[in-house]
Amino acid sequence: MSRDTRIPGFEELPRALPIFPLAGALLLPSAPLPLNIFEPRYLAMTRDVLGSHRLIGMVQPTDPAAEGKHPETYRIGCVGKVVRFEETNDNRFLIMLLGVVRFEVIEELDVTTPYRQVVASYGSFRGDLTDEDPTAEKVDRAGFIAAFKSYSDRLGLKANWDEVDKAPVAPLVNALAVACPFEPSEKQALLEARDLAARAEAMLVMMRMADGPHQPGGKRPTLQ
Question: Do 6 and 114 share a domain, yes or no?
Answer without folding.
Answer: yes
